[in-house]
Design goal:
Layout: H1 2-32, H2 42-64, H3 71-91, H4 97-120, H5 130-150
Helix pairs in contact: 1-2, 2-3, 2-4, 2-5, 3-4, 4-5
Length: 151
């Protein structure tokens, strides 16, 4: 009986890890490997920077936003995440439709970041669905890539 309980606990831990770490990593690896668009197009730079911001946030926020949150480490995470978002937003100041769609994707990332920051700082009142926001980010980024390829 104890052996079955232990096996079930280990299985639950592995499943949790795969859902929280493996799935986002796989999605990032699949989306990040595709070229955004060709050449010196401002849409290409925008989409690449938005994808990089998504990668940076996934690498920083996912492992560090789980309780208990070390506030010293979290302060460093916030600075890095804010920098990645600012770089992406400045790269997406171009007037193309693809840049507009990538900007929408960045807004989703910022909303996800703000929600996780609230929780990490002990204010869970405004928590939405960070996983859904991340999924929406990848959807919008895919749409931006398609728009850039069609330009």
């Amino acid at each position: 009986m104890l052996g079955r309980l232990l096996a079930l606990a280990i299985l639950a831990i592995v499943a949790y890890y795969l859902l929280t770490e493996g799935l986002p990593w796989l999605k990032t690896a699949m989306d990040g490997g595709r070229p955004a668009a060709g050449g010196d197009d401002p849409s290409s730079a925008c989409i690449s920077e938005a994808a990089r911001a998504g990668d940076d946030l996934a690498a920083e926020l996912i492992p560090n936003a789980r309780p208990p949150v070390d506030q010293e480490i979290w302060g460093t995470v916030v600075v890095r995440a804010a920098g990645a978002l600012a770089r992406a937003e400045s790269a997406c100041a171009c007037p193309t439709a693809a840049c507009g769609k990538a900007t929408e994707a960045i807004w989703e990332l910022r909303a996800m970041f703000d929600e996780l920051d609230d929780v990490a700082r002990g204010n869970p009142m405004g928590i939405g669905n960070p996983a859904r926001r991340q999924e929406r980010f990848y959807e919008l980024l895919g749409e931006a890539r398609a728009m850039a390829a069609g330009d």
